[in-house]
Design a protein that fits this description.
about 220 residues; mainly beta; Sortase, Chain: A; Sortase_F; hydrolase; Sortase; Class F sortase
Length: about 220
Amino acid sequence: MSDEERPSGSGRLLMALTWAALLFALWQWGVQLTDVRQGVSAPATGDMGAVGRPPEAELPPAARPLGNALPQRIDIPVLGVQAPVAPRGLDRQGAIEPPPFNQAGTVGWYAAGTRPGAAGAALMVGHLDTETRPAVFYKLGSLRPGQTVRVTRDDGRIAEFTVEGVQVQNRDHFDARQAYGPRRPGRAELRLITCGGTFDRDTGNYTANVIVSAYLTGTGH
Protein backbone atom coordinates (compact mmCIF):
# COMPACT_ATOMS: atom_id res chain seq x y z
CA MET A 1 0.00 0.00 0.00
CA SER A 2 1.42 3.41 -0.95
CA ASP A 3 1.79 6.31 1.47
CA GLU A 4 -1.19 8.11 -0.05
CA GLU A 5 -3.35 5.00 0.09
CA ARG A 6 -2.44 4.22 3.68
CA PRO A 7 -5.41 4.67 6.05
CA SER A 8 -4.90 7.55 8.47
CA GLY A 9 -5.74 7.40 12.16
CA SER A 10 -6.39 11.14 12.13
CA GLY A 11 -9.56 12.92 11.22
CA ARG A 12 -11.64 11.08 13.80
CA LEU A 13 -14.99 12.45 14.90
CA LEU A 14 -16.96 10.23 17.28
CA MET A 15 -20.72 9.95 17.01
CA ALA A 16 -22.39 12.30 19.50
CA LEU A 17 -25.89 12.20 20.97
CA THR A 18 -25.79 15.69 22.52
CA TRP A 19 -24.20 19.00 21.53
CA ALA A 20 -21.70 18.73 24.38
CA ALA A 21 -20.68 15.27 23.27
CA LEU A 22 -20.36 16.50 19.70
CA LEU A 23 -18.04 19.31 20.80
CA PHE A 24 -15.87 16.86 22.68
CA ALA A 25 -15.72 14.58 19.65
CA LEU A 26 -14.87 17.54 17.42
CA TRP A 27 -12.06 18.43 19.79
CA GLN A 28 -10.67 14.93 19.46
CA TRP A 29 -10.99 15.22 15.70
CA GLY A 30 -9.48 18.68 15.55
CA VAL A 31 -6.30 17.93 17.45
CA GLN A 32 -5.36 15.19 15.01
CA LEU A 33 -7.18 16.27 11.87
CA THR A 34 -4.56 15.43 9.28
CA ASP A 35 -1.71 12.95 9.34
CA VAL A 36 0.87 15.08 7.53
CA ARG A 37 4.62 15.08 7.57
CA GLN A 38 6.20 18.00 5.76
CA GLY A 39 6.90 20.19 8.77
CA VAL A 40 5.27 23.36 7.48
CA SER A 41 5.34 25.81 10.35
CA ALA A 42 3.05 28.59 11.53
CA PRO A 43 2.50 30.45 14.81
CA ALA A 44 1.35 27.97 17.42
CA THR A 45 -1.57 29.97 18.81
CA GLY A 46 -3.41 33.23 18.50
CA ASP A 47 -5.70 35.35 16.38
CA MET A 48 -4.00 35.33 12.98
CA GLY A 49 -6.72 37.54 11.54
CA ALA A 50 -5.63 40.40 13.78
CA VAL A 51 -2.24 40.63 12.08
CA GLY A 52 -2.23 43.75 9.92
CA ARG A 53 -5.93 44.40 10.49
CA PRO A 54 -6.98 48.06 10.95
CA PRO A 55 -8.32 48.60 14.51
CA GLU A 56 -11.73 49.76 13.20
CA ALA A 57 -12.06 47.42 10.25
CA GLU A 58 -15.72 47.11 9.31
CA LEU A 59 -17.17 43.90 7.95
CA PRO A 60 -20.40 43.69 5.93
CA PRO A 61 -23.70 42.79 7.60
CA ALA A 62 -24.81 39.19 7.66
CA ALA A 63 -27.20 38.01 4.97
CA ARG A 64 -30.34 36.02 5.67
CA PRO A 65 -29.57 32.27 5.83
CA LEU A 66 -30.44 30.17 2.79
CA GLY A 67 -32.39 26.94 2.68
CA ASN A 68 -30.75 23.56 2.76
CA ALA A 69 -28.71 22.54 -0.29
CA LEU A 70 -25.65 20.38 -0.75
CA PRO A 71 -22.24 21.97 -1.33
CA GLN A 72 -20.51 21.10 -4.59
CA ARG A 73 -17.32 23.16 -4.62
CA ILE A 74 -15.45 25.83 -2.69
CA ASP A 75 -13.58 28.79 -4.13
CA ILE A 76 -11.20 31.04 -2.20
CA PRO A 77 -10.10 33.60 -4.80
CA VAL A 78 -7.27 35.20 -2.84
CA LEU A 79 -5.64 31.78 -2.32
CA GLY A 80 -6.32 30.47 -5.81
CA VAL A 81 -8.29 27.58 -4.31
CA GLN A 82 -10.92 25.97 -6.53
CA ALA A 83 -11.81 22.61 -5.08
CA PRO A 84 -14.60 20.04 -5.15
CA VAL A 85 -16.41 19.33 -1.90
CA ALA A 86 -17.08 15.77 -0.78
CA PRO A 87 -19.54 14.85 1.98
CA ARG A 88 -17.89 12.75 4.63
CA GLY A 89 -19.69 10.16 6.69
CA LEU A 90 -18.80 7.82 9.51
CA ASP A 91 -16.76 4.67 9.22
CA ARG A 92 -17.41 1.36 11.02
CA GLN A 93 -15.79 2.73 14.15
CA GLY A 94 -18.16 5.68 14.28
CA ALA A 95 -15.60 8.21 13.04
CA ILE A 96 -15.78 10.68 10.17
CA GLU A 97 -13.58 9.91 7.19
CA PRO A 98 -11.52 12.84 5.83
CA PRO A 99 -10.73 12.99 2.11
CA PRO A 100 -8.10 10.37 1.28
CA PHE A 101 -4.54 11.55 0.63
CA ASN A 102 -4.86 10.68 -3.06
CA GLN A 103 -7.60 13.35 -3.13
CA ALA A 104 -5.57 16.01 -1.36
CA GLY A 105 -7.20 18.68 -3.53
CA THR A 106 -10.67 17.86 -2.20
CA VAL A 107 -12.35 19.53 0.77
CA GLY A 108 -14.42 17.41 3.14
CA TRP A 109 -17.73 18.63 4.51
CA TYR A 110 -19.23 17.12 7.68
CA ALA A 111 -22.48 15.96 6.09
CA ALA A 112 -24.29 15.19 9.35
CA GLY A 113 -23.99 18.84 10.34
CA THR A 114 -25.08 22.19 8.91
CA ARG A 115 -25.20 22.69 5.14
CA PRO A 116 -23.19 25.72 3.98
CA GLY A 117 -25.48 28.73 3.67
CA ALA A 118 -28.07 27.42 6.13
CA ALA A 119 -28.33 28.73 9.69
CA GLY A 120 -25.64 27.33 11.96
CA ALA A 121 -21.95 26.58 11.54
CA ALA A 122 -21.02 24.34 8.60
CA LEU A 123 -17.71 22.49 9.02
CA MET A 124 -15.24 21.91 6.21
CA VAL A 125 -11.84 20.27 6.53
CA GLY A 126 -8.90 19.93 4.19
CA HIS A 127 -5.39 18.55 4.30
CA LEU A 128 -2.47 20.92 4.76
CA ASP A 129 -0.07 18.69 2.84
CA THR A 130 0.84 15.10 2.09
CA GLU A 131 4.20 13.36 2.29
CA THR A 132 5.12 14.75 -1.12
CA ARG A 133 3.30 18.01 -1.80
CA PRO A 134 1.11 20.85 -0.47
CA ALA A 135 -2.61 20.14 -0.27
CA VAL A 136 -5.79 22.16 -0.72
CA PHE A 137 -5.61 24.17 2.54
CA TYR A 138 -1.84 24.73 2.49
CA LYS A 139 -2.25 28.54 2.59
CA LEU A 140 -5.40 28.67 4.71
CA GLY A 141 -3.68 30.48 7.59
CA SER A 142 -2.89 33.46 5.37
CA LEU A 143 -6.56 34.44 5.02
CA ARG A 144 -7.56 37.75 6.60
CA PRO A 145 -10.87 39.28 7.74
CA GLY A 146 -12.86 40.77 4.90
CA GLN A 147 -11.71 38.23 2.31
CA THR A 148 -14.23 36.06 0.49
CA VAL A 149 -15.01 32.35 0.44
CA ARG A 150 -17.60 31.07 -2.04
CA VAL A 151 -19.45 27.76 -1.82
CA THR A 152 -21.37 26.55 -4.88
CA ARG A 153 -24.48 24.58 -3.94
CA ASP A 154 -26.63 22.10 -5.81
CA ASP A 155 -29.58 24.51 -5.87
CA GLY A 156 -27.64 26.69 -8.32
CA ARG A 157 -26.84 29.36 -5.74
CA ILE A 158 -23.41 30.46 -4.59
CA ALA A 159 -23.15 31.18 -0.87
CA GLU A 160 -20.69 34.04 -0.39
CA PHE A 161 -19.01 34.15 3.00
CA THR A 162 -16.83 36.89 4.49
CA VAL A 163 -13.92 35.88 6.72
CA GLU A 164 -14.20 37.40 10.19
CA GLY A 165 -11.45 35.59 12.08
CA VAL A 166 -8.46 33.29 11.67
CA GLN A 167 -7.09 31.48 14.68
CA VAL A 168 -4.39 28.93 15.35
CA GLN A 169 -5.27 26.87 18.40
CA ASN A 170 -2.70 24.71 20.12
CA ARG A 171 -4.05 21.18 20.41
CA ASP A 172 -3.17 21.08 24.12
CA HIS A 173 -5.48 24.05 24.75
CA PHE A 174 -8.11 23.42 22.10
CA ASP A 175 -11.40 25.29 22.66
CA ALA A 176 -13.98 23.20 20.80
CA ARG A 177 -16.94 25.49 21.47
CA GLN A 178 -15.07 28.53 20.17
CA ALA A 179 -13.79 26.60 17.17
CA TYR A 180 -16.98 24.85 16.09
CA GLY A 181 -19.91 26.56 17.80
CA PRO A 182 -21.90 29.34 16.09
CA ARG A 183 -20.56 32.81 16.88
CA ARG A 184 -23.97 34.51 16.66
CA PRO A 185 -27.38 32.84 16.82
CA GLY A 186 -29.33 32.77 13.59
CA ARG A 187 -26.41 33.41 11.22
CA ALA A 188 -25.18 31.12 8.47
CA GLU A 189 -21.53 30.48 9.32
CA LEU A 190 -18.65 28.50 7.89
CA ARG A 191 -15.56 26.96 9.51
CA LEU A 192 -12.55 25.94 7.45
CA ILE A 193 -10.12 23.76 9.36
CA THR A 194 -6.67 22.34 8.72
CA CYS A 195 -3.46 21.62 10.58
CA GLY A 196 -1.06 24.29 11.80
CA GLY A 197 1.81 24.90 14.16
CA THR A 198 4.81 22.65 13.65
CA PHE A 199 5.06 18.97 12.83
CA ASP A 200 5.88 16.80 15.84
CA ARG A 201 7.76 13.78 14.56
CA ASP A 202 7.39 11.95 17.87
CA THR A 203 3.59 11.96 17.72
CA GLY A 204 3.20 12.10 13.94
CA ASN A 205 0.89 15.11 14.14
CA TYR A 206 0.96 18.88 13.89
CA THR A 207 0.88 20.84 17.13
CA ALA A 208 -2.11 23.05 16.31
CA ASN A 209 -5.08 23.67 14.04
CA VAL A 210 -5.83 26.63 11.79
CA ILE A 211 -9.50 27.63 12.08
CA VAL A 212 -11.03 30.17 9.71
CA SER A 213 -14.40 31.59 10.72
CA ALA A 214 -16.66 33.18 8.11
CA TYR A 215 -20.32 34.16 7.83
CA LEU A 216 -22.80 34.50 4.97
CA THR A 217 -22.89 38.00 3.48
CA GLY A 218 -24.40 37.45 0.03
CA THR A 219 -25.42 35.06 -2.72
CA GLY A 220 -24.69 34.68 -6.39
CA HIS A 221 -25.65 32.47 -9.32
